[in-house]
Design goal:
By secondary structure, this protein is α/β, with parallel strands linked by helices. The protein has nine helices and 13 strands. It is globular, with a radius of gyration of 19 Å.
Amino acid sequence: MTQPSLDSTFDTSLVDVSVSLHPNLFPQPTFTGSFSSTNTDPSDNGQPSTLQPNPAASCNAPSKPVRYTTTTAAYDEWAESYDTDGNILQGVDDLELETLLPGFLALIATRPDAEAASRAAGQKLRVVDLGCGTGRNTLKLLSYSWPQATTIVGLDASAAILDVARRKFTSHAWGFNVVEVVLLEHDAMLKPSPPPQALNADAVISTLVLEHLPLSTFFAALQLLIRPGGHVLLTNMHPNMGSSSQAGFVSKNGEKVRGVSWAHGIEETVEAAQAAGFELVDKVREAKVSKEVAGLLGERANKWVGTEVWYGMTMRRTQEKSEM
């Protein structure tokens, strides 16, 4: 996929380049033989970048053999080591969410229309974690002090990944407010309609998931999930990283396993969101790996020093219906 330039038609006032550093809150990851992203061929004409290796990039070819598979199959195999393999981009995502997520959750919890309507009807707030994985951020949602009864629905295409997540969660209660967690298997590529338990959500978070879906598929899923007026928190691999890298891991037999990835640019992501009936609530944030951040994430982050690897945004659904 050809990456758009931020100094062309994109309003750069929406971009806030910053990295939030919280070394006391971020544990040093344990590194094994896995990798979070490696050299691969960029995509063209909207096609995923992972189905075939690029012969012209042989000088940058990985030393280990590479096996290409579907994204779901890759994550099924990755499930048991996913939380402990020292994923660099997850580390950056965790650092950024330390400031981005609390503000997003406060926005949901203090929205007068949602609170008044749900209390009057005796309904729970509904929050969806789209592409929840092993529950990395579902756990953050569960730990939040919600002002009223809340249902958190985690959706993921990988059954094995969800099995890992289920071992982490049970229902929790604080005072009179019960927070329920529901984890469901759902593949937006194969079945557009989400499970009924996830529909009419007040909010959706989706972190480091967009890489694995076409923009049209992703935002069509959001349209089905979230009610008008609902909010979305989205994070993704930055195109400066995605043009040469993708999610993957090293299997027990030494193979590098890769699923399917798209290197979505910031401009095209914002345009797709707007076309689907979403508006930005705040500036798009970008995160660059500094030497300080690399020191937190480990030796493998050094190759990314000076490179933007992450972007995130908060959106609100504005329309009842929209055509993609």
